[in-house]
Design goal:
globular, four-stranded antiparallel sheet, mainly beta, seven-stranded mixed sheet, about 130 residues
Amino acid sequence: QLQLVESGGGLVQPGGSLRLSCAASGRTLDDSAIGWFRQAPGKEREGVACVSDRPDGRTYYSDSVKGRFTISRDNARNTVDLEMNGLKPDDTAVYYCAAGPPLFWRPPGVPETCVLVAAYDYWGQGIQVTVSS
């Protein structure tokens, strides 16, 4: 059974940076596609960044974070990290990592569908990120 735990959240001023980490236990993350999602109060859960399984490693970002966020794998630590730069108040949310089969990274799948909640089987408990002065 795969278990995911997020860390690294907190309070940051606008324009600041945070690095979230998604740690796995139970098995390796190498053969899973990983997504980072967020959910603000009163809003639906939104996919912001995804990475395919190893060794492919392709990534996808939503338009709302493209150019500011970077998703990456740390194979030695069995984690998937989300580096967040240029944070804005609109980035305030609970952030979740999720793992699932890399179906959408293979034909006839469409990588852009990696931001869909339904594409993932395992979820972390979430961690708060607050961007405020």
